[in-house]
Amino acid sequence: MATVLITGASAGLGLEFAWQLATARHDVVLVARNEDRLERLASQLRAAAGVHAEVLPADLADREQVARVADRLRSTEDPVSLLVNNAGLSVGSRFVGGDLDAHLDAHEVMVRAVMVLSHAAAGAMVERGRGAIVNVSSIAALTAMGTYSADKAWVRVFTEALAVELRGTGVTATALCPGLVHTEFHERAGIDQEGYPELAWLNADAVVAAALADVRRGAVISTPSLRYGIVSEVTRLLPRAAIRAISGDRRLRRHVAQESTEDR
Fold first, then answer.
1. pLDDT confidence bin for 197, thresholds 50/70/90
2. Tens of pLDDT along 62-118?
3. Gap between the Cα atoms of 119 and 183, Å rounded
4. Residues involved in catalysis
5. Is residue 25 over pLDDT 60?
């Protein structure tokens, strides 16, 4: 039975990863800020799936707490075979004239923590000759909509570079690049989901199932659903001047706000 560590595990895609992996008989290490919520989830997973569920509360905007999670990834006792770097947050403001500290917190969670935890996990996994890392990026990585797009673009390219470095080691790296996903966070953020056609939305269970299938086959980029795969390819082929023009559209900027409301 393998052990997986999931950041942002208490809600959204992280919660779905926890349930799907636990019901597949994997032990789980659950990381998020809200300890009470993590404890409830751990109890549910133990009862429903009969797995070991370890709770590791941490705010990934805090470097000392990130170091504690990295130590767990390096541990040789009950070693982690799969890392899911899912934690993220919505800044909720523009960069110019906005709250710089909020943007820096987001950068700590979605860039620095991803690098630190990937480094810890990859080192331990390569030593054992097996393992996998999933870093949650976004379709927004191909756009130019605020610091969220920039952070997620870094995650995508970093994961590709990591995958190249890991070739032949028995360890893989996959960047998950979803589009709009139904989660509880859109309600909590007060964002109107009806402003977008139902066709644009994906269900969290389908996104996670597709991501895990891609991990099993060693895919470097995972873009769940054919429609977002097409959007991704078209976006990559467009001139960057066109991307910048499209990215200035207020409606699309709200799309990023919706997609970026994840769990820390």
1. very low
2. 999 999 999 999 999 999 999 999 999 877 778 888 899 999 999 999 999 999 999
3. 29
4. 148
5. yes
As a whole number of angstroms, the distance between CA 247 and CA 250 comes to: 8
First to last CA, the chain: 27
Q: What is the 3-state secondary structure (H, E, C) of the chain?
A: CCEEEEECCCCHHHHHHHHHHHHCCCEEEEEECCHHHHHHHHHHHHHHHCCCEEEEECCCCCHHHHHHHHHHHHCCCCCEEEEEECCCCCCCCCCCCCCHHHHHHHHHHHHHHHHHHHHHHHHHHHHHCCEEEEEECCHHHHCCCHHHHHHHHHHHHHHHHHHHHCCCCCEEEEEECCCEEECCHHHHCCCCHHHCCHHHEEEHHHHHHHHHHHHHCCCCEECCCHHHHHHHHHHHHCCHHHHHHHHCCHHHHHHHHHHCCCCC
Residue 189 pLDDT exceeds 50: no
Q: Determine contact, residues 107/66, Cβ cutoff 8 Å.
A: no
User: Which tens digit of pLDDT belongs to each residue from 204-222?
Assistant: 778 899 999 999 999 999 9
What's the mean pLDDT in 30-58?
Answer: 97
Mean pLDDT to the nearest integer, 3-29:
96
- Sequence-distant (6+) residues with CB within 8 A of 65 are 58, 59
Phi, psi at 4, each rounded to 5° = -120, 145
HSE value, Cβ hemisphere, 13 Å, CA-based, for 87: 33
